[in-house]
Amino acid sequence: MNRAALLCVGVSAVVGLACGGGSPPPASQAAIDGRARNVGDAGFDDQSRCDYKGRADREAAETAGPGALQPNVRRVYQMVGTGESMHKVIMCREIDTNLDGIKDIVRTYNEKGESLHEEADTNYDGRVDTWITFSGGRIAKEEIDTDFNGTADVWKYYVAGQLSRIQRDTNHDSRPDRWEFYNDGKLERMGVDLDFDGHVDRWDHDEIARLAADAKERGSDQGAKSTSSSGVGDGGAPVATPDNGELNKLGADAGASTSKRKKK
Length: 264
Fold this sequence. Notes:
Layout: H1 3-15, H2 27-40, E1 58-63, E2 73-80, E3 87-95, E4 105-109, E5 115-120, E6 130-135, E7 138-144, E8 154-159, E9 162-168, E10 178-183, E11 186-192, E12 202-205, H3 207-229, H4 244-263
Antiparallel strand pairs: 1-2, 2-3, 3-4, 4-5, 5-6, 6-7, 7-8, 8-9, 9-10, 10-11, 11-12
């Protein structure tokens, strides 16, 4: 071994420098470095779903999100208006969430900048498995492919941005066979199609919610009875009460009924 080789070995042992070798970078870092090189290669397809290439009325801006060494978020803007009122509005946004160089979430917007639709590949197999529809900028419907066969089997519906009901396809025949209804984010009742004919065979109710509703209804009934006994009906209208003659007649009828029961 010559002097130069001995010197290289000595320096490497002391300070950990690589002389034509050394320890490889961590696996995660190596993957990130490889992804960065791939993104820079000409013709690399990051499976972009935003419509901007070749369009003079749109421009794209890329940024690096948290934990990303290379840009993984792309926003596409469109020029809206004319003259001094012209401004740009976001029309599409897509993200590479697992930093593999492939965009796996894309969301589109209307000219007001309100969300319209979103698609996502949550298991990173290259196929979309989640579809979200927005109305007025709020989530209205979410379709999910839980077994990743290309077809949704869970459908979630929202009202004013809050979960209202869920339909589930448990036997994977592309038809719902379980229906869940929610109120204030809590499950109230659930219908189950036991024979998969498309009709509910059994309703399962939330017992606690049912008892609370019953108690509330009983309280309302008692309040109504109390109001009626005071001689005031709904809306403050007076309630007609029997006069003395009618009371006497009612008493006589009651006495006659009692007398007949005794004779029997």
